[in-house]
Design a protein that fits this description.
Layout: E1 6-7, E2 14-15, H1 22-25, H2 37-56, H3 67-80, H4 83-109
Antiparallel strand pairs: 1-2
Length: about 110
């Protein structure tokens, strides 16, 4: 019976992967992606570094703010405003929404 071989994701060497996935074991299983413990450690380091970089660049595409940046900015703004300013801001937002709905409804009547 021939065993299935796959290339190591780090060095490219052919190896026989483990039959159990990381999900079944409940921990990272280097034997399903790498030929040795050393290559497995390197693979895991690369994956974690890639995830950290992706997380830090979350939504900075085209000058957009990420959700975490927006939440931080809002909390900073809220800390610097008193209660009256927050209430005024809420009223202005509601008024803007109302005027937008009114404009949209006028456009649909034509």
């Amino acid at each position: 019976m021939n065993k299935r071989t796959v290339p190591c994701r780090v060095c490219g060497k052919q190896f026989v992967p483990c039959g159990k996935s990381s999900a079944e074991i409940g921990a990272f299983n280097y034997r399903e992606v790498a030929c040795s413990e050393e290559c497995g450690a390197e693979y895991l380091r690369r994956v974690l570094a890639g995830r950290a970089a992706a997380h830090s660049n979350e939504a900075s595409v085209d000058g957009q703010m990420s959700i975490s940046e927006l939440q931080t900015e809002r909390s900073d703004d809220a800390d610097s405003m008193d209660t009256n300013e927050l209430e005024n801001e809420k009223v202005q937002r509601i008024e803007k929404r109302g005027s937008k709905k009114h404009v949209v409804s006028n456009d649909t009547e034509n």
